[in-house]
Every structure is written in C-alpha cells, then in structure tokens.
Design goal:
Blueprint (H helix, E strand, L loop, with lengths): L5 E6 L6 E3 L6 E3 L5 H4 L9 E6 L11 H14 L5 E5 L5 H11 E2 L5 E4 L12 H13 L1 E2 L2 E2 L4 E5 L2 E4 L4 E2 L8 E2 L7 E3 L3 E3 L13 E2 L7 E5 L6 H6 L8 E6 L9 H12 L3 E6 L12 H9 L2 E2 L5 H11 L6 H9 L8
Parallel strand pairs: 1-4, 1-5, 5-7, 7-10, 17-18, 18-19, 19-20
Antiparallel strand pairs: 2-3, 6-16, 8-9, 10-11, 11-14, 12-13, 14-15
This protein binds aspartic acid.
Length: 341
Amino acid sequence: MNTVPKILLIYTGGTIGMVKDKKSGALYPWDFEVLQERLPELQSLQCDLKVASLSPLKDSSDIGPLDWTQFAVFLSDQYAHYDGFVVLHGSDTMSYTASAMSFMLQRLSKPVIFTGSQLPIGDMRTDAKENLITSIELASLQEEGIPIINELAIYFEYKLYRANRTTKMNADNFEAFWSPNYPILAEAGVRLQVFKDRLLPRSHFPFELFRTLDQNVSILKIYPGITAQHILTFSKINHLKAIILETYGAGNVPSDSSFLNALEKLIASGVFVINITQCMGGEVTMGHYKSSEALLEMGVVSGKDMTTEAALAKTMHLLPLFSEGSEFKKAFENNLSGEQS
Ligand code: ASP
C-alpha cells in the first residue's frame, strides 16, 4: 500500500518555468511536462508527485480575479484527491493571488504552498530548484498521516510565510518576499524548522470554496499634494463599490476640509473606504492622531495591520457577501484567514 503523501504540483506560469529565446534573449514559458527530466532530484522525494499545468500559462502580471476564480475552482475540484498542493506562480503578483486563495479556499486541512523564482529553472545560478524542492517537502510534511501545514503559504529563499501576510519587496534579490507583520512559519536550513505555534490550526469543519469575487475596487495612495479633486474622480467610476486608501503612518490623511468633505461624499454615495497604512510595517489605529479622527467618524473601515494585497483580495471576497456598510465593516475588521493580528 502506498503511504507517501500525494502532492499535486500546479504550474501557472512565471519565471520559474521559463527558458530564454536564443536569438532575442526574451523569456518564454516552457513545457512543464519535461520537469522531471530537468530535475531528476524530484524522483528521490518522499511523495507521490503529479504535475498539472494551467492553460494558457501566464506571466503573473496578466493574472487577475477571473484567473483566481478559475484557479480556486480547479483546486477545489482536486482538493479531495491530494494531501498537499504546490503552486508555481510568477513572483510579481504571487502575494495577490495567494492572498485571494486564502479567502476563497477556507477551512483548509491541507497545505497549499506557492513558490516561484527570480531566475529560470534552466539558469546555472537558479533559485528555482531549492524553492521547488523545499516547497514539495513542506507540502509533504505529516505527523501520523496528518499534514502539519494547513494553510496557504509562500515559500521563497529558505523561508515559509503566511501567504496573506506577504508582499513582494525586491525585484532583484533572491529574497523577494517579506512578511512585515507576522513571523515566518518555517525556515529551511540544514533541517526544516517549522514553527508550529505560528501555524493556523487544522480545520475540523469541511473545506469550503468561495468562488465569487467583486472587482469593483480601487486603490489610492495618499501623497503630499493630493486634493479633493482627486477623490471626486473616483465618484465617476461606474459601479465602484470600495476604495482602499493607503494612508500615512498609523492611518493618517491631510486634515484639509475640502479633502475630507470629498471623502465623506464618496462614503455617503455608498462607496466603502478602507484604511491601510502605506508603511512597510505596523498598523492603522484611527483616532490615534487628529488627522485620522475624521476618518473614524465617517465610518472608514480599518485594515489594521493587513497588507494592501490582502486588503484588496479580502474586499473582493466580502463585497458579494455584504452589501450593507456596517455589515461589510464588521466582516472586514474580523480576522478571516490569519491575515490580521
Ligand atoms: N514577471 C514574472 C512573473 O511574475 C516574474 C517572476 O516570475 O518572478 O510572472
């Protein structure tokens, strides 16, 4: 009887599976079916590995909410047949896709580990091999036949992160991701060290798929010189339902009354406004400074210590479920999948 974990490796696109066009030097996706040939090491792993490629393969800049839905449905169809999943995805929007999955695939009792690489798998100095092999090892970790990791995670450059806590912070370094407000879940050194007390508990309720997203959301970064005019432009966007404001520090905006009135008008027209800090770490505490008190009074939703990526995905996930402002606010401020402290 086969007792090794069954792992499904899904290639969606991105640098990890690309090769260089000899003439132009441009990168293009390559047939992942030949993966085993390129990486004979895979045969020595203690798991039963199956490979699937999504079609068409995409650079992650082209991956968006429609792909997320298709992908979540695909994963949900495969869910019962495997003990763990490894997803190969371009690093550029990996934090967005993986955050979305953490809201769309709820009550997991198996690992779903995203990884990618900065250099193509065929490159001499590639980071792809280590990222891929360790991700499969992490997805295969079990104790008495039960997976140790039961959540959406990203593995990159020796570290495992909670996916919806990450952001891509470097375009060049192998260490491309960072989790500003939550510690790493595991580290790969000579041994794989898993910090079990940081993992989400295994769900005892059945896995649930939430496939519907509403993408009528915008993001606006507050900057010195922003005016009421800029805010009012948003009221011209058809069907806009929510704006994520990337504010200063602990959630602060300019105190200019015309700016604040424009924001209030937008909220009165039914647009939900969510406050996320543009700082790389820390959290929004509205009312801490005078400059955020007005936002609190207007009913702006607090994004607490969430990343912009998680806030965007959470908003798209919650909009179809809650159309009333106070219900949306309550649901948003509640921790769903470990995305906020
Ligand atoms: N542009 C690529 C992508 O995100 C970069 C990468 O794979 O890391 O698809």
